[in-house]
Write a structure and sequence with these properties.
binds 1,6-di-O-phosphono-beta-D-fructofuranose, Rossmann fold, alpha/beta, 10-stranded mixed beta sheet, 16 strands, 4-stranded parallel beta sheet
Length: about 550
């Protein structure tokens, strides 16, 4: 049976993503790279330089005119790495179109299932019909993604061998900070081995934490935040209509609270927790609960037994005493993996861990509800970390707030009714059809990646800037991957990694939120962003995130 697609998908297939003006040069030409001054890494310069002797210090490049001479065909490969993010298909489409524009004989291969596809040599070759089916669609299903880490020299050797067998001289890694860190290591290794293979990255993650002075946003953040904001707005309207529930909404985003902050800025809930602030103020779980309960009480005193609380996914790891506890637990589980895995049943696992934890940490663990204890003991991710998306922090807070309100009620300090409902928005947004912003941004990122390869560059992150301006004024170029690196302690060793961007408490978006949240807490200042609009006036369809708008406001 022929594959059917939805009416939106069919209409959307015809959408022509907007490109920076500089990239709309005639066919048959690569772009000329305008090179800036040599660069430095964000920190630990000497150490980073020593680790990346061949790719350190490269200049920032921009593209604004075609190259002087036509370019030969390029055979490139691409992988999608890590969690899904809306717009990934358009990165590949932009890359494909850009390569074909440089030279119609260029070829693009997609390696399947993430970095492991490169090692295991599992691939597809794209053609027009293949690519056309995926233009402007959400998801990563075009070639799939994965979280295998590409960091060992033996893996790099395999990659080089597989690329050489196919005649591939260029690789594009579409991933977050960890994947681009590995792309940087691969780029360095490929130069060291004189393999002739260029490696370029593209900044992906809904979490929004791969950004810095040069990277204004990671792709997918815009669409995912808009999907969550639509849902939060709908819930706010329901809460304000029924006036009987407190909704606790956990939002994806891993460690950083960018998504929670962006959703708060666009929906104005009664409470939004920001993990980075919790860490900065060294708040305990109890203090967070008291703060929430105080707002519940204040609203109840005003006759409002309803409200909205946004909870960032990574909160639990930012509460200082829980952070220490989780660290100890991670080490304990890593050191006792075999005996722990052999245990049958949750009770045995809880007992095993409680006996091995230090006294204070064991007490902290015992004080948590059974469901949370179990979630904390679930499988770690490939980096050995707790998978925060699996911990029902919203339920933990609901239970604890309810218990505290009960105490206050018994003392006559609280007279309201507290009935709560928990939600978790994460996977709902990661594969949504990209907003115009992400469709344009991603296509431009892919196109820019092809220009970097056309200019013979390696060790770069594809970059598109000036994004609060119309797309034709966007600036396309490349940022040296080493420029974003610093050393961080991982598994007891200093490792070079791209610095993750957490919410800056002295930044403008947080300041705006902090200046308004007291009013949002008691008044019903809710905003209802509604669904992403794909067709209609530019002021609705081409909106950037509120975060970016505030960040770039003068
Ligand atoms: P990336 O950092 O790879 O982009 O993944 C983002 C994310 O969606 C996080 O927000 C979330 O914590 C995690 O992936 C969930 O992981 P998984 O997809 O393995 O369930």
């Amino acid at each position: 049976m022929a594959k059917t697609i939805s009416p939106l998908q069919s209409a959307r297939a015809a959408y022509k993503p907007k490109l920076p003006k500089a990239l709309t040069t005639p066919h048959g030409s690569a772009m000329k790279a305008v090179k800036g001054d040599p660069t430095q890494s964000v920190a630990d310069q000497d150490a980073i330089k020593a680790i990346f002797p061949n790719t350190y210090g490269l200049p920032v490049v921009t593209f604004d005119a075609p190259a002087d001479a036509p370019m030969g065909a390029i055979k490139a490969g691409v992988i999608l790495s890590g969690g899904q993010a809306p717009g990934g298909h358009n990165v590949i489409a932009g890359l494909y179109d850009g390569l074909k524009k440089i030279n119609a004989q260029s070829e693009l291969y997609g390696f399947l299932g993430g970095p492991s596809g490169l090692i295991d040599n599992k691939y597809v070759k794209f053609d027009d019909a293949f690519i056309n089916e995926y233009r402007n669609t959400g998801g990563f299903d075009i070639i799939g993604s994965g979280r295998t880490k590409l960091e060992k020299e033996s893996d790099f050797d395999k990659v080089i061998e597989n690329c050489k067998a196919l005649g591939i001289t260029a690789l594009v890694v579409i991933g977050g900070d960890d994947s681009n860190t590995n792309a940087c290591m691969l780029a360095e290794y490929c130069v060291k081995k004189e393999s002739g293979i260029m490696v370029v990255g593209c900044p992906k993650t809904i979490d929004g934490d791969m950004k810095n002075e040069w990277v204004e946003a990671s792709f997918g953040f815009d669409t995912a935040s808009k999907v969550y904001s639509e849902l939060i707005g709908n819930i706010q309207r329901d809460a304000n209509s029924a006036k009987k529930y407190w909704h606790f909404i956990k939002l994806m985003g891993r460690s950083a609270s960018h998504i929670a902050l962006e959703c708060a800025l666009s929906t104005r809930p009664n409470i939004a927790l920001i993990s980075e602030e919790v860490a900065e103020k060294k708040m305990t779980l109890r203090e967070i609960v008291v703060d929430i309960a105080a707002v519940v009480k204040k609203r109840a005193d005003a006759g409002k037994d309803f409200g909205i609380v946004l909870v960032p996914e990574g909160l639990i790891e930012f509460i200082p005493n829980l952070k220490i506890f989780i660290g100890e637990l991670n080490d304990l589980l890593a050191a006792n993996a075999e005996s722990f895995d052999a245990l049958v049943g949750d009770d045995a696992k809880v007992k095993f861990v409680t006996e091995k934890l230090s006294k204070d940490m064991a007490e902290a663990f015992k004080s948590l509800p059974a469901a949370i204890q179990k979630q904390l003991l679930a499988d770690r991710d490939p980096h050995g970390n707790v998978q925060v998306s699996r911990i029902e922090t919203e339920k933990l807070l609901m239970e604890m707030v309810e218990a505290l309100l009960r105490e206050w009620k018994a003392k006559g300090e609280y007279k309201g009714k507290f009935s709560s409902i928990g939600h978790f928005f994460g996977y709902e947004g990661r594969c949504a059809a990209p907003s115009n912003f992400d469709a344009d941004y991603c296509y431009s990122l892919g196109y820019t990646a092809s220009s970097l390869l056309g200019a013979g560059l390696t060790g770069y992150l594809s970059s598109v800037r000036n994004m609060t301006k119309p797309a034709d004024q966007w600036i396309a170029g490349g940022i040296p991957l080493t420029m974003m690196m610093n050393l961080e302690r991982r598994h007891g060793k200093d490792k070079p990694v791209i610095r993750k961007a957490l919410v800056e408490l002295d930044g403008k978006p947080f300041a705006y939120f902090a200046a308004n949240r007291d009013s949002w807490a008691v008044n019903d200042d809710y905003q209802y962003p509604g669904p992403i609009q794909y067709f209609g006036p530019g002021e609705v369809c081409d909106l950037t995130t509120v975060t970016m708008k505030i960040e770039q406001s003068k």
